[in-house]
Amino acid sequence: MNVGNLAHPAEEVAPKLLGAILTHETPEGTVSITITETEAYSGTADPASHAYRGRTPRNAVMFGPAGHLYVYRSHGLHWCANIVTGADGIASAVLIRAGRVIEGEDLARKRRGGTVESPRLARGPGNFCQALGITAEHNGTDLLTGASVTLSEGEPVPAALIRVGPRVGVSRAHDWQHRFYLAGDPTVSAYRLSPRAQPPAGA
């Protein structure tokens, strides 16, 4: 996709981010990861979104502009990275769930643990951030202006390889078909229904 054209709803951008590359340059070295799994979160219209109840200091980055990084702590355990999409002022973001390390694998493994197998280095949103070296300090980073964390185009992904399914581990709107991933790719995380999942509206 044209990574400079992110000002569209998250559910439209999420599948197009498959194959795109996130790169983080640090004094330790550079790590680049090709995105293989994403999830769309549609802001105030989405019960599973951090922005569902409106703007707060925590979720302010989600309201735009597009192309910035929204980073949050999940369950107090690990960082999660989202790429802000949509029109400025309207909350919308794509969670990066998994990827394949294509540069800096030794550094990514050092961050994750020396015995982690290659396909698992960036499998799952927390592992993705750990391998890439993303923390709270990167919240709000503009991915398109040449900062230390950047988003770039990768090899085009054939539409036949893209799969769609329900989101992983969320308790509300878990049945929404807003998860996108590459079929058969070993870096993609396993589907897991949240034990707190609520019945779909009207069920």
UniProtKB/TrEMBL annotation:
- List GO BP terms, alphabetically: base-excision repair
> What NCBIfam families does UniProt report for this protein, alphabetically?
3mg, PRK00802.1-3
Q: Which Pfam families match?
A: Pur_DNA_glyco
Keywords from the UniProt entry: DNA damage, DNA repair, Glycosidase, Hydrolase
Enzyme Commission designation: 3.2.2.-
Q: Which SUPFAM superfamilies match?
A: FMT C-terminal domain-like
Gene3D superfamilies from the entry? Answer: Methylpurine-DNA glycosylase (MPG)
UniProt key word Transcription: no
Question: By its UniProt entry, which CDD domains does this protein fall under?
Answer: AAG
The source's domain of life comes to: Bacteria
Protein name per Swiss-Prot or TrEMBL:
Putative 3-methyladenine DNA glycosylase
